[in-house]
Amino acid sequence: MTASPHASSKPILVTGGGRGLGAAIVRRLVEAGHPVTFTYRSAVAEAEALMAEIRAAHPEAQLSAYALDLSDRAAVDTLAQALEAGQTWYGFCHNAGASYDTLAAMMDQDKAEAVMQVNHFAFARLSRALVRPMTRAREGRIVAIGSVAALQANPGNIAYAASKAALLAHVRGLAIETARRGVTVNYVAPGFIDTAMLEKYADYRAKMEAQIPAGRFATPDDVAQVVAFLFSPGAGYMTGAVLPVDGGLTASLPAHR
Fold first, then answer.
1. Where does the Ketoreductase domain start and stop, copy by copy (predicted)?
2. pLDDT at 6
3. Which of 63, 78, 65, 157 shows the shortest CA–CA distance to 119?
């Protein structure tokens, strides 16, 4: 699989780009002039609608989509091999994520490992495929979408938080290994985003928003604009950074007067 050679010469791969935050990231990167390829799993209709929307607004856009289940290790490896055999990519955004909520004492290892595969190991394999050509070109940007859960503990969220913490450790290590060769690697840590993933918490939304200093959930575009910046010339000296995009959630004490 290769990105289009036309338009911009800085193609970017986005995982989980069919809907929600991923779709917002795809929109912003296309607006910035990048050829974008995104993966999706079950969001077939949403991915098709997104492509139609973007092509209507940007007829010159170089955009393609690729069906991929990141929980399938063999499928991830197949994509990685195709990336290794193709052209050099400028950017990679690992946005796709899986969640699993349960208390530590009740955690099912198979379910926890499935979350780790999507959130961390898929990133590890795809970034390994992409980073060597980036270092040879002495230019590249890698952005991982993590979570504030990797920074602050939350009951019942251990499996997900552990996967995002592993992702953070990988990002920081990769950042210092590649910095001298022109590649930046950064970690965006959103708080609560107004997407389908949080619909199951609808009954608690008002209480959750009351704990956020900004008083609301993030929109997908709040986060997507930060991601797009990390792929821009202005972020060329930022690497190994953790950027909370959480309305002040991690800056505040959990107990208030």
1. 10-195
2. 39
3. 157
- Is the Cβ–Cβ distance between 218 and 49 less than 8 Å? no
d(CA 239, CA 237): 6
247, with CB counted inside 10 A (0-12, 13-18, 19+), is buried
Arithmetic mean of pLDDT, 200-211: 78
> Using CA atoms, how far apart are residues 252 and 100, in angstroms rounded to an integer?
25
Locus of tokens 């210092």: 176
CA distances from 92 to 105, 134, 237, 257 (A): 36, 10, 17, 43
Contact 127, 92 (CB under 8 A): yes
Q: Which of 90, 160, 201, 237 is catalytic?
A: 160
Amino acid at 248: G
Sign of CA dihedral 21, 22, 23, 24: positive
Residue 160 designated active-site: yes
Which residues fall within 8 angstroms of residue 2, CB to CB, at 6 or more apart?
86, 87
DSSP state of 218: B
The pLDDT tens digits for 189-203 are 999 998 776 677 667
